[in-house]
Amino acid sequence: MTELTDEAAQARFDAPLADEQAVMAMLAALPPVTMPRELSDSISAALAAESASRATGSSADSDTSDQPLAEVIDLSSRRRTWVGAVAGIAAAAVALAGAAYVVRPHDAQVVGELGPVLASGNVYTSGQLSSEVPQMLTNAGLGSNSGTNTARVAPADAAQLSQTFAATTDGIRSCVAKLGDSGDVTVVAIDLAQYQGNPAAVVVTRATGGTELTATVVAPTCTSSGPEVLARTTITAP
Asked: pTM of the entire structure?
């Protein structure tokens, strides 16, 4: 078990690793667990019995006002090792949930930072996708050559988002995780527009450490079980 200083432990707590974030997200998504009635009744009975026992014995006990209520234990030496136990705790939690949930492997893709969701109004076409997407990014101020003439692409509003996977961050991550990108990715932007005359979304991603971008056209209802990829191309970042 790795020992950490208090400062390092706090830093680890403030910025958990990707695997720890994934476990926390999985645990947060679990449905509430109801304690079995038999167990609840047993605990209540035990607490009631203990309370009655203390009440009965209190008058017969001698004065203990000058005695310590409990042994005081110095936890300073133990405090530094708590972070090292996080992985073990997370693994146990995953094991408990394993009967009902599929856990992402350690080397599976991580969808990192999410860029803006836009509504350009573009009608993308199969033959021009590799030039249309960089132009959209430049117009949105997301290209290195955008300069000061930016924000010509409006962000999607609530009505436009409501019928698409991009309405929530979970929906975006669920869709992007199934697009076939190799390794961890950052979502540069999502454009709710049209493709070949039909409603679609263009998801622009960048692999971690990569220089090129991938533009994937998907149906507005993209999900992890059915991403409905309509087109896909690699482009040079503008």
From this structure: 0.53
